[in-house]
Design goal:
The protein contains five helices and 13 strands. With 286 residues, it is α+β, with helices and mostly antiparallel strands. It has two domains: 74 residues, no CATH class; 197 residues, Sandwich (Immunoglobulin-like). The strands form two sheets. Strands 1, 2, 3, 5, 9, 10, 11, 12 and 13 form a nine-stranded mixed beta sheet that branches. Strands 4, 6, 7 and 8 form a four-stranded antiparallel beta sheet that branches. It is globular, with a radius of gyration of 22 Å.
């Protein structure tokens, strides 16, 4: 690229990569002299999602050296697999809040490889607790702590495997939002992974008419792969209606929702291959 424009993808730069690959590994005799300008429309249609042929996707995979696992995921999406969910949004929190988070937490030291949220709603209809299993990977040397964000509805944080204790340090990031750190059971080198387990209990008032007490959300500030959410209701208090939903940020309105039915264990489940800068979860009415 000659000049970067923020997060905008340069179509000509992408076309240059594809053209260079075709000149080295031509599919037809004409490809040996391929120029990037001839591929700009193909790139534009592919990146916008307007038209992505099998041959074009294969070219992207080969030219950019996309790994076999990610290529399998792309082909699954291309074939319309219902088993793969990918969500992307513009933001999970307002830009000013994101800047505050960056100031308090500092540069990222890990990435999440997978995350599982198991949510429980009690017989009173209150959100009782969540159990989270999270696999993290160190992206810098000597990662010994994990930043943990919570709001004033959280009553207790209980740690399990992969966690040694809590730092005891408490920092307020914004109104009703705080941060602490979980001390890991071992210090991670670059590329090391660790499975963390923790439980959160809540102290919601119990106003079942309040929409805020009839939902569970997960906000993703950056990129998250392999995300699983399961919500289980007490058989003594089952929702009249339940939706899998997506919100326009933590303070925004619902932008998408899909009706969900409970299984024989009074639970519902969603798995997403990828989530980017958005808020997803379950909401219900009694």
């Amino acid at each position: 690229m000659v000049r970067a424009r923020g997060e905008e993808i340069s179509k000509l730069a992408v076309a240059e990569v594809l053209a260079g690959h075709l000149r080295v590994s031509p599919r037809t005799p004409a490809d040996a002299g391929m120029q990037p300008q001839r591929l700009k429309d193909t790139v534009s249609r592919g990146l916008s999602g307007d038209l992505l042929s099998r041959a074009t996707l294969a070219l992207f995979v080969d030219a950019f050296g996309i790994s076999s696992g990610e290529a399998d995921r792309l082909w699954g999406l291309w074939n319309g697999s219902a088993m793969i969910g990918v969500l992307a949004g513009s933001h999970a929190v307002p830009p000013e809040a994101e800047q505050d988070l960056a100031k308090v937490l500092g540069p990222r030291r890990h990435q999440t490889v997978s995350m599982h949220d198991h949510v429980y709603v009690d017989a009173d209809g209150r959100l009782e607790r969540t159990r989270t299993l999270q696999v993290i990977e160190a992206i810098v040397p000597e990662v010994s702590r994990f930043p943990f964000l919570y709001d004033t509805s959280a009553l207790t944080l209980e740690i399990g495997q992969g966690c040694q204790g809590l730092s005891g340090e408490l920092r307020q990031i914004g109104p009703g939002v705080f941060a602490t750190e979980i001390v890991l059971s071992r210090t991670l080198a670059i590329g090391d992974t660790l499975t963390m387990e923790y439980w959160i209990t809540y102290r919601l008032p119990g106003n079942l008419a309040d929409p805020a007490e009839r939902e569970y959300r997960r906000g993703v500030l950056g990129h998250l792969e392999n995300y699983d959410m399961r919500i289980e209701f007490s058989p003594q208090k089952l929702p009249a209606q339940l939706w899998w939903s997506r919100w326009n940020g933590v303070a925004g309105e619902v932008t998408e929702q899909t009706p969900v039915t409970l299984d024989s264990q009074h639970a519902a489940h969603r798995f997403l291959r990828s989530v980017d800068r958005t808020v997803v979860g379950f909401r219900w009415v009694w």
